């Protein structure tokens, strides 16, 4: 075994042990479903902010985005711009109000304040839905799209292990998902949140260090790399001089890229951080921490992509491996092992959060809501743990059976969540007269359009327009059109006024 392999093995093993140790540390603190799902709503600003980053910016940040820039050039940067705007908007428009509303809305089933633990239970309580339809439909959407989202992380994990250790991708997926399941199974939301803080720091430092070392290497040795010309800036390594600035500024490229930002308004694993923060008063500081990290990290990821264009003379077989390839080419084996572990951190920090939200949908919105409403607290915790294992197994099956790229899988799930939940969540927090009919129509219309458009455009239309755009338009139209078929009850309006007053006071 080479020294590089030994170093990578040791550092990866140390990382795995640290993650599992955190899971064991918080194991005994998890005594109720609230603890397992939202950590008892006790996250401080730093943990909430960095956990939101780590749970969001997965392999897409360290593999997908640099790979897209490396392959296709400047036009892909619009995605980062859209995400930066959308991420900031989610903190400033949604976080504080959602934190208050999920705790203060009247419980649709039992009366009194609800303490909603999931997005689905929030929607049921916000719209006083006694039928359970809103809760059931939203839980199904969450499970459906998270299976693809978790699968994208497992694909990235397989690629990383294959690149570093020479394992087959299938073996790597099985090993990686087993580690994620273990510490999520043990510690739930607190384990996921605390490990996220470590993972966020590792990711950011890796993105900072690698471009600096690469550029120093290129500038100090004329034999290394080549100049970055206009063609590769605009069109990536495969452009062959054919791209022009018009491609990067094409309306479809701009609209599709910016539309990614809308997705933040409806991502359950990010909204869970808003719901789990200590209080609405802690939101402004968390927003500064989180948005600052996100903007700088995405900027560094763009630089990594262009650094790969400069550094490698021959095009890479897999553009999404540009970051790992730079690390292995530039770094001392022990440093490389730590930096490669940061990529693994990106994968795991999102997969664990998504597993937790999906298991919560099965437990809180399935088992507890429709099967055993009076289940004891620890029974619900163990049902959630079993659900983590089940969701992970299904997602691993998807990852093992397909060959889609990370960006394809993430884009599919992101559009589904963004359109299915984004407009509904945003309007539910600011529109006093919104009701159950509008919310249900918006969810179904947006989620269904995201799925249909993705397949229709790929097979027939070939416009290249990201599914988020038509899906959000359909969702918004459906909300306003169908809202006329229902009414907001007096209780719903009183809840809205009470939440509005409290949220404004905390802002």
UniProtKB/TrEMBL annotation:
It is found in: Cell membrane. Keywords: Amino-acid transport, Cell membrane, Ion transport, Membrane, Sodium, Sodium transport, Symport, Transmembrane, Transmembrane helix, Transport. The chain crosses the membrane at residues 6-27, 47-71, 77-94, 136-161, 167-192, 204-224, 244-265, 286-314, 334-359, 380-400, 412-430, 437-453, 465-482. Its main location: membrane. It is a multi-pass membrane protein. One of its GO terms (cellular component) is plasma membrane. This is Sodium/proline symporter. It catalyses: L-proline(in) + Na(+)(in) = L-proline(out) + Na(+)(out). One of its GO terms (biological process) is proline transport. GO terms for molecular function: L-proline transmembrane transporter activity; proline:sodium symporter activity; sodium ion binding. Gene3D superfamilies: Sodium/glucose cotransporter. Catalyzes the sodium-dependent uptake of extracellular L-proline. Belongs to the sodium:solute symporter (SSF) (TC 2.A.21) family. The keyword Transport applies. The lineage of its organism: Bacteria, Bacillati, Actinomycetota, Actinomycetes, Streptosporangiales. Pfam families: SSF. InterPro entries: Na/Glc_symporter_sf (IPR038377), Na/Pro_symporter (IPR011851), Na/solute_symporter (IPR001734), Na/solute_symporter_CS (IPR018212), Sodium:Solute_Symporter (IPR050277).
């Amino acid at each position: 075994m080479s020294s590089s392999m030994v170093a990578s093995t040791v550092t990866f093993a140390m990382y795995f042990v640290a993650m599992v140790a955190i899971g064991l540390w918080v194991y005994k603190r998890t005594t109720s479903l609230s603890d397992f799902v939202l950590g008892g709503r006790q996250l401080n600003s730093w943990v909430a902010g960095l956990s939101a980053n780590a749970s969001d910016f997965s392999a897409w940040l360290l593999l997908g985005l640099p790979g897209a820039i490396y392959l296709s050039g400047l036009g892909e940067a619009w995605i980062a711009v859209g995400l930066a705007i959308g991420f900031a908007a989610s903190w400033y428009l949604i976080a504080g109000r959602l934190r208050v509303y999920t705790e203060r809305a009247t419980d649709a089933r039992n009366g009194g304040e609800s303490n909603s633990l999931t997005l689905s239970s929030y929607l049921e309580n916000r719209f006083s839905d006694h039928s359970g339809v809103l809760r059931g439909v939203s839980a199904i959407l969450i499970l459906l799209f998270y299976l693809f989202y978790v699968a994208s992380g497992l694909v990235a994990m397989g690629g990383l292990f294959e690149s570093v250790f020479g394992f087959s991708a299938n073996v790597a997926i099985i090993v990686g998902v087993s580690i994620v399941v273990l510490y999520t199974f043990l510690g739930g939301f607190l384990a996921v949140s605390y490990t996220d803080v470590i993972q966020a720091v590792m990711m950011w430092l890796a993105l900072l260090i690698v471009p600096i070392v690469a550029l120093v290497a290129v500038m100090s040795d004329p034999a290394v790399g080549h100049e970055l010309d206009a063609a590769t800036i605009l069109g990536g390594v495969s452009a062959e001089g054919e791209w022009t600035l018009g491609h990067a500024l094409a309306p479809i490229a701009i609209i599709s890229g910016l539309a990614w930002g809308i997705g933040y308004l409806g991502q359950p694993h990010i909204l869970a951080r808003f719901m789990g923060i200590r209080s609405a008063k802690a939101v402004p500081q968390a927003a500064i921490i989180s948005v600052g990290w996100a903007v700088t990290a995405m900027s560094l990821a763009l630089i990594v992509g262009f650094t790969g264009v400069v550094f490698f003379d021959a095009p890479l077989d897999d553009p999404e491996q540009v970051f790992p390839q730079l690390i292995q080419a530039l770094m001392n084996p022990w440093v490389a092992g730590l930096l490669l572990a940061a990529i693994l951190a990106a994968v795991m920090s999102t997969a664990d959060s998504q597993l937790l939200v999906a298991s919560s949908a099965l437990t809180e919105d399935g088992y507890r809501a429709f099967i055993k409403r009076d289940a004891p607290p620890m029974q619900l915790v163990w049902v959630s743990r079993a659900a983590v294992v089940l969701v992970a197994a299904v997602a691993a099956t998807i990852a093992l059976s397909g060959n889609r790229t990370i960006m394809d899988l993430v884009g599919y799930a992101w559009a589904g969540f963004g359109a299915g939940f984004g407009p509904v969540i945003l309007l539910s927090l600011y529109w006093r007269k919104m009701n159950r009919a509008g919310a249900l129509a918006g969810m179904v219309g947006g989620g269904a359009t995201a799925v249909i458009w993705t397949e229709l455009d790929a097979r027939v239309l070939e416009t290249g327009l990201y599914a988020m755009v038509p899906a959000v338009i359909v969702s918004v139209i459906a909300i306003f059109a169908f809202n006329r078929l229902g009414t907001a009850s007096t209780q719903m309006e009183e809840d809205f006024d009470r939440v509005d007053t409290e949220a404004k006071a905390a802002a």
